[in-house]
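Support request from a user on the community tier.

User writes: "When I paste my C-alpha cells into the form, the page sometimes reloads and wipes my input. The last time it worked, I copied everything first. Here is what I submitted, just in case something in the input itself triggers the reload:"
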C-alpha cells in the first residue's frame, strides 16, 4: 500500500465511523419522535379528533423544506422523508382510532 492509499483508507474509516454515529442518532431521534406521536395518537383517539391534520402537515413540510435548504440538504429529499414519516404517524393514529 502506498502512503496515499493508506491515508485514503484512514479517511474512509473516519467517515464511516461518523456515518455510523449519525445513523444511530437518526434512529434514536426517530424513536423519540414516535414516542411523542404515539401519545398524540392516543390523545386524538380519546378526544375523537381526526388522525391527520393537513394544515399542520403542510406547515411542517414547509418548515422542514426551509431547514433543509439552510442545512444544504436537497429540499425534495427532505419533503419525501417527512412525508414518509407523517404517513407512518397517521397509520399509527388510525390504529388508535380502532
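"...and here is what came back when it finally went through:"
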Amino acid at each position: 500500500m502506498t502512503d496515499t492509499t493508506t491515508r485514503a483508507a484512514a479517511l474512509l474509516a473516519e467517515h464511516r465511523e461518523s456515518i455510523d454515529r449519525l445513523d444511530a442518532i437518526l434512529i434514536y431521534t426517530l424513536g423519540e419522535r414516535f414516542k411523542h406521536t404515539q401519545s398524540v395518537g392516543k390523545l386524538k383517539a380519546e378526544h375523537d379528533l381526526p388522525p391527520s391534520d393537513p394544515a399542520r402537515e403542510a406547515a411542517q413540510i414547509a418548515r422542514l423544506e426551509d431547514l433543509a435548504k439552510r442545512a444544504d440538504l436537497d429540499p425534495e429529499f427532505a419533503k419525501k422523508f417527512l412525508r414518509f414519516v407523517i404517513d407512518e404517524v397517521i397509520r399509527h393514529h388510525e390504529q388508535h382510532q380502532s
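Agent notes: The reload is a front-end session timeout and is unrelated to the input. Residues 20 and 26 are 10 Å apart (CA to CA). The mean pLDDT is 93. Escalated to web team.
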